[in-house]
Amino acid sequence: MYGLINRAIKDFVIERAGEPAWKRVHLDAGVQEDEFVAMESYSDASTYALIGSASRLLDVPQEEILKEFGRKWITYTADRGYGELMDGWGLDVGSFLDNLNQMHARLKLAMPKLEPPQFEVFERGENSLILRYWSDRPGLSPMVIGLLEGLGQRFGTPVNVELRSARSVEQDHDEFFVTWQTAAPGST
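RESULT FIELD:
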């Protein structure tokens, strides 16, 4: 994963528990780096180790850490120069999700080692859809829930997410039922 993700984990831990907690987390995780270069690729194992360590040392279930981190990721990346890019891929939750794979393809031009997940919008309603999610990285569906909720915050509309079915031996993807309210005019 790219350093931008590990930087966001670091900021998340510091915001939640302070700089000393971050020192404990990264040392407990066995990750030598205290700072991460945003556009440099790091091993997935180090990112998972940071999440696991944060869960243990902050005494918060890993699923909740991932969900909170997902919500934070939306504002974190927007504040780090990706907000305009995000604005170009949708004016509301539904249109943004319709274009998510295209946005990831564009990001891959700047980040050649990027291995983004794949999404498919399925059975779209006026304020609802089923979202299918494929990733080579296991265990990140709580983060996807947080990301979707964070998108709702970004677009000024509450989003509800229900994990309908999880990846398994029989199914190669997670499936979410996503609903949202129509945003008030001028709220984005």
